[in-house]
Structure formats: C-alpha cells, structure tokens
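Worked example 3. Consider a protein that binds adenosine-5'-diphosphate.
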Amino acid sequence: MVSGYMALLEKKYLDRLDDRGKEYVRFAMDGAMRMDCLIVDLLAYSRAGTASLDPKPLDLGQVVERALLNLGPAIEESQAQIKVSDMPTVAADATQMLQVFQNLIGNAIKYRGEERPVVEVSASEGENEWEVAVRDNGIGIPPEQQHRLFQMFIRLHGRSEYEGTGIGLALSRRIVERHGGRIWVESDGKHGSTFRFTISKDLASAARTDEDCAGQRND
Ligand code: ADP
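Given these inputs, the predicted complex is written out as structure tokens:
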C-alpha cells in the first residue's frame, strides 16, 4: 500500500515535485520495498520454527533443479556456471529444503568476486547422514566472522555493496537443525566459501521442534 501510493504520487504529481521531492519519493519507495523483503523473510523464519514438518522421501536433485529455476534471473544476469553432482533422496520437507538450497546457491552467486561465478553443489555419504556442500569462487568469508553468520541480521557488508536482510543463513540453520542436521561454512577468507550441512539418513530423526535444537546451540 505504501509503495502503491508512492507510485501514484510520482505518476500523478510528478510535474509539481521539485528534484528534492522526487528524491524523497524514491527513498520512500525504496524503503517500502526493503520492508516488504524483510517481512517476507521474517515470516519464512517464523514459519520454519513453528510449521509442522512434513518429511517425505525427497530427491534433493529435483529440489536443486527447482531452486535453480527460481534463481534463473540471477544466474542469467551473472552468467554463473552451476555444477550439480549426484544428489541423494532423503527424508525432508520439500518447501523448507528448497529454501535452504535457494539461500545457499543465491548467496554463492550474490557474493561473487571479479570472476564469473562457479557454484558446485554436491553430496557425500557418511555412515548415518549425508553431507551436502555448496561451494563458490566468490569473495570468501574471514574465519573470525564465520560463526556469526548464522545469527539473525548479521551481515558483513553494507546495503550499498550487496542487498539483503541478513535472515537467509539464520533461516537455513533453523531448517537444517529441525531436520536433525548441522550447518557450517569453510573459507580462508579469500578464495570462495563452502557451505556444508548434514541431513540424517534416518527418517525418524527428522522433524525436531525448534526447542530441541535450541538446547544444542550455544550462541
Ligand atoms: P543476506 O544475504 O540477506 O545478507 P544471509 O543470512 O544469507 O543474509 O547472509 C549473511 C551474511 O553472510 C551476508 O550478508 C554475507 O556477508 C555473508 N555471506 C553469506 N553467504 C556468503 C557467500 N557465499 N560468500 C561470502 N559471504 C557470504
């Protein structure tokens, strides 16, 4: 509603606004759009903690494909090269897993360096769990900052450098932990980052409550 009325104001009264007035309208529209993104992300975060999980056999390869489809414009704009290895079928909630892959692959493209982005999605099999990796050749993350990134609203860069709400990784952690897994990042701070998360092979261990997970964290 705010951005709608601002757009109307700009359209109908443009000739009566001086340059400063036009600038104010632009600022207000910008702010309304950011507020919209923030609310959408906060809602997703809240739902991921409260909505009941619906873990079903899920082909992660198909989930990645769907995420790439949704990220189509960003992939095209950045000319990103995405390599996807064989992905397993696990017991997980389809909507929530899509959010995790979309966040991690989306970040891998967004936080790119000078080079054309190359993103590799892969999975390796452990005894009781799968370990999924999303590796990029982007700007990297200094080791001393890595533990903070999974908290809400933590961003290492200003809005003028990269757009974002600082919720994506907190949301991803919430989802992974509700599925009984862990998520972390590896980077030397210069040569790209690899985000990894685990997902149990055991259907019964999926679907934890957020309270179960909070007890295992110490942040
Ligand atoms: P957002 O991208 O909206 O800021 P996230 O929670 O997804 O929020 O990420 C938090 C911060 O972690 C980002 O602001 C960025 O500084 C850093 N980050 C996330 N992914 C990457 C990545 N692949 N490479 C470098 N930095 C990253």
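Take a moment to read the result before moving on. The two ends are 38 Å apart (CA to CA). Residues 2-50 form one domain.
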